[in-house]
Amino acid sequence: xxxxxxxxxxxxxxxxxxxxxxxxxxxxxxxxxxxxxxxxxxxxxxxxxxxxxxxxxxxxxxxxxxxxxxxxxxxxxxxxxxxxxxxxxxxxxxxxxxxxxxxxxxxxxx
Amino acid sequence: xxxxxxxxxxxxxxxxxxxxxxxxxxxxxxxxxxxxxxxxxxxxxxxxxxxxxxxxxxxxxxxxxxxxxxxxxxxxxxxxxxxxxxxxxxxxxxxxxxxxxxxxxxxxxxxxxxxxxxxxxxxxxxxxxxxxxxxxxxxxxxxxxxxxxxxxxxxxxxxxxxxxxxxxxxxxxxxxxxxxxxxxxxxxxxxxxxxxxxxxxxxxxxxxxxxxxxxxx
Lengths: 110, 217
What we know:
Order of helices and strands of chain B: HHHHHEHHEH
Number of helices of chain B: 8
Largest sheet of chain A: 3 strands, antiparallel
Number of strands of chain B: 2
Radius of gyration of chain A: 16 Å
Shape of chain B: globular
Distance between the termini of chain A: 28 Å
Strand content of chain B: 5-15%
Strand content of chain A: 5-15%
Largest interface: A-B, 20 and 22 residues
Oligomer: heterodimer
Low-confidence stretches of chain B: none
Strand order of the largest sheet of chain B: 1-2
Structural class of chain B: mainly alpha
Largest sheet of chain B: 2 strands, antiparallel
Structural class of chain A: alpha+beta
Helix content of chain B: over 70%
């Protein structure tokens, strides 16, 4: 992924993580795999953990431990009602931003 | 398991241990630290199966990664008299008494000395041991850059040798007598010191176990 995409992803990673958790509870590595399947590769994968910690601190998500098939516990995250509301706000913000950028790009190409 | 796999396992173990040690110093609660360790370890173990290296996970600066995670995690710095007091008694004093007990017993039993003199050189040795323990704890942060554990240990020993030499040279240059006697005592006092070290160490282990059980309830 080029540098511009990396920067764009950095600015929207928290929103993407909330959106993934809105679909179903996930563990950290699983979220990265889902992002990667959509063509979004996080440069420093571990950077999602401080971010998840921050989202948890803000009461947007919560974590819980589940025994994995291999034996040891695995930490899952799930979205909380405050997280759902925050995701709606961020989605609206993102759509307005993307529309504005699109208008500018279309204007430039005409 | 192939040799490369073993090397990666060592890399992961050393890195995760260094991160956990750092988080402990940053005042993150034990149960939270264990969760963080588990999460990081599982991620690092899974990444090679998808063709990703350790530094793809934590970046080239593992210490910065550990710090960024610690910053976003509830933690406390040891504040308030009870906490400082607890640290002084159960961490610092216990280590000092254990060290002094060992040296004193060595003097009495092996060197057959009736009295034990605590010399300045003993304190320097104690400081050097502390420095080595600290360096060893954080050597794991070099894992993303130096894959082989042997190379990390060699580098660690090199840094340790330079720092220890610098300490000794600085003391010699300042005309400090390393054999200066700070305290001197006989057998009964040594036995008291050994008993005190044992009681403190035992209490520390008991408290740690009780806290651990409390967290798992």
